[in-house]
Write a structure and sequence with these properties.
This protein is an alpha/beta fold and about 230 residues long. Helices cover about 40% and strands about 15% of the residues. It has 7 helices and 6 strands, in the order αβαβαβαβαβαβα. The protein has helices spanning about 1-5, 40-50, 70-80, 110-120, 140-150, 170-185, 200-225, and strands at about 10-15, 55-60, 85-90, 125-130, 155-160, 190. Helix 2 crosses helix 3 (about 70-80), helix 3 packs parallel to helix 4 and helix 6 (about 170-185) packs across helix 7. The longest helix has 23 residues, at about 200-225. The protein is globular and about 40 Å long. The two termini are about 15 Å apart.
Length: about 230
Amino acid sequence: MWLRQTASVPIGIYLECGTEDDPSVSTTIGTQMVREDRIASTRNLEEALTEGVDFIVLGGNPGTSTTIDTIIEATKRAKKVVGDDALIWAGKWEDGSNEKVLGDPLRTDSKDKISELIDAGADVICLPMPGSRQGVSVSEIRDLVTFTHSYGDKDTLAMCFLDGSVEGSDIDTVRECAIMSKQTGADIHAIGDAGLHGIAQPEDIYQMSITIKGRRLGWFKMAAGGR
């Protein structure tokens, strides 16, 4: 994969898991967010392996009505196709207007759903970052991260994702969210794409990097380049 040769870091892709109207693969084909080339179908999963991706992220974007049960089914399908050739990241951290995200205090089954995701084959559980979604606190996510780390003997990792358009806010907000994310014990801290051109503002990405890793490691990674 030319992108890995250029970036010299693990490369992953995001695939949609459809909607509750069609949990087997996906629906609303042809809409802006859920298209045939974006869904977690067997064909696309096989294509991802052919392209040499290192990890696949399974979820549902806002407005797609994707349920956690749909994501669990997509995780099972991905595990059958991918096996151990790529890591599978899965969770419910977006689209909380149709179904509460994992970690929302109004959701009482978060741990049950996390265990189902892990049993389905997820290597990384994706959770909302405190400060990005209403009602999602450090204590709630910390509890779920601890559960994820201790469930079974699978050594499952946890990721906190800054989304809800908060990734497009000021650097002080990004800094505070990143600090809260570290307090949860999550292994991976990610930032969303709600910027002017489909990515977070460069200054927000930079601020999260510096907050999580400090200048020494952050600058070293930037200076090292891709080769």
